[in-house]
Predict the 3D structure of the following.
Amino acid sequence: MSTLLVCLLIMLLLPYLAKAPLGYAMNKEGGYDNNHPRAQQAKLKGFGARALAAHKNSFEALTVFSAVILAAIATQHIGFLVQVLAIVYVVSRVIYHVLYLMDLASLRSLTWFIGYICCLVILIQCFY
């Protein structure tokens, strides 16, 4: 179970780590506007817009992964396969974020799909 909890911890940290490239992009646009960050973020283009989208997507991904991992723990389906799938999911999300920043949309979509399949298989394991 500790593997699942470590994966969950990493996923809890990822949205905040994903804020670093966004903060960098905002800073390049005349300085980080801490008084009105959302207004500044809405004006970002290119890398900055992708950094914002990746940051937001990290929160979205966290909700799905959290639910699936908690379901696995609650149903005591924490075996080897579930642990491997959780690790693959975390790795896919990190790669997803990098590909988002690099503007490699097709590869990014592929890594999203891999992560989604991991979550589905973990949840399916909870039924057996």
About this structure: Residues 2-21+47-125 form a domain with the Four Helix Bundle (Hemerythrin (Met), subunit A) fold (CATH 1.20.120.550). Helices lie at 2-17, 19-28, 37-42, 47-74, 80-102, 105-125.
